[in-house]
# Entry
Amino acid sequence: MNLARVEKSTWIYLGISLLLIVVPIIVTGRSMQFIIIQFFIFAIFAMSYDILLGYTGIISFGHVMFFGIGAYATAIMMNRFDSTILSFILAIMIATVLAAIVSLIVGMLTLRLKSHFYAMLTLALAGLFLVGAEKWRSLTGGNDGFTFKLPEILRDSHNLYMLCLLSLVLIFFGLRRLTKSPFGRVLMAIRENENRTESLGYKIVHYKVIANVVAGVVASYAGVLYSISLRFVNTSVFATDMTIDVLLMTIIGGVGTLIGPIIGAGLVEFAHHWLSSLADVHWIFERWIILYGIVYILIVIFFPLGIVGTIQKKFFPRQNIQKKKKRMDRENPEEGMDEDERYRNG
Amino acid sequence: MELISTLVINGLATGMLIFLLAAGLTLIFGLMSVLNFAHGGLFIWGAYTGVWSYQLSGSFIIGIIVAILTGLLFGLVTEKLIIRPVYGNHIQQILITLGFMLVLQEFIKVVFGPNQIAVAPPAFLQGSFYVGDVIIIKYRLFIIIIGILVYFVSMFILKRTRIGLIVRAGVMNKEMIQSLGINIRLVFMLVFMVGAAMAALSGMLHAPYSGVIYAEMGLEFSILAFIVVVIGGMGSFSGSLFAAILVGIAQAFMAYYVPALSLAVNMLLMTVVLIFRPQGLFSR
# Structure
């Protein structure tokens, strides 16, 4: 790989990732480390949601079902079998395969429909999963849930931190690569104008289904991490609140940016922690969801692009185009760019 | 035989409640192409304010009136504050109405407390009577009658009055209505308010039927309403009545024979309809 061709932002993100490795050395409090771990996990979950909402323009209200599948697959595996690394890896594989199958079926059944139907259907499907988990008590433990043991190595908070951080970084770069690939560009084209993309010869349903599977698998991996971070699982992993949380993170941070959902996840996670601790001060903070809801509504009305999107629009409105021009002049003044390069620069 | 007729009556009563909720949804969707995810919130607000004034005043009728007024008021506020700023943008509409649903649901807990509230039907609707061998519970019959009444009154308004004509024409072609000099925004608002009032009425009637009310039931019940709207066809009023009865009866039978699958059967119904007739059974 030619290092000079790596984008500047990639170096920045790598730098931040390296900084985050040092954090657990400075922040040694277990509860604080736990919050940061939760933040990483929800950042992964929110990024997977961004693939649907931000890049493909699909609104799913049932994304939590993949998260729940991951969480339960891990918990059940760990509970029924030896808590070794091998069964953990097996659990991840099972979670991935299950989520892929479910998202494929759901996608093929529903993604032909208009956005309204899709949103409703996914909401109802997630409701079905929730009811199913509550009724199938012998397997899921219902609303009470159950605890399980972890392999020795994951019990250490520091190791867990590293696992989550590594997952976050890898998934972030993986998804970023995906969205900058020709495939990602087609997804964005679908978001902008479905009919036109279709008339250009793309089978949009195929693209949407693949996007759904990718998002589903990543979400289920977030679910895996979530359940091992708690060492406990109950039906709340299928609750609509969780979908709304992740929706909020994605929208606050900025849809269609990938880095936005990470920032959003951080904000929501820390705000949640902070507001819950204020519950002793005034009872209204116990109902912090109201504040969330109001903030969320205001953002949808006034800043539909979210934090990152608004900043991008305000401060770097034409950056991409200028960059492209510069590079064109520098590299290949006569011929222009090859296809792949053009995609990469947006 | 007795069992079957009891289950049918149960199903009809549930179906009517779902119909009241779904009718507003489907009209609002047909006219404004807004899918109101906050509809369940209007449902619980109707239930809570209605029950509150019912228990305060001791009169069930006052409770119903208060619920309807709450529905109208909340409908007005929702339309003005929530729907109007994002008019025409589907993704924003879906996102914002879901957010508003959340606010409404949490706000219930602030105003009325987080605990469940037990509700009994009023004295004149308590008990049951026999028709032949069949026991008929009065309150269920009452719900069915109200549901049919609302259906026929709405049908009359839609088919026989000028405002109904405008609404039906608006469902077909909004732009044309506007160009004929009719203030379509005002019609939207009215339809939204009426839809919200129906949701609130449904919530109020549901309260003594289920015996308890709690904040989360709005979302649970509105999922059923969404299923009904999909099966009946978006924007079809009669379709939602038919589908609501279908869903209600299916729910009642499954809840008796295979309780674990009572939601699943409706999901299955909806999935089948969506695959073979995605525009719904009654839609053109």
Chain A touches chain B through 38 residues (CB under 8 Å). The longest helix of chain A spans residues 30-56. Residues 331-346 of chain A have pLDDT under 50 and may be disordered. The beta strands of chain A are 146-147, 232-233.
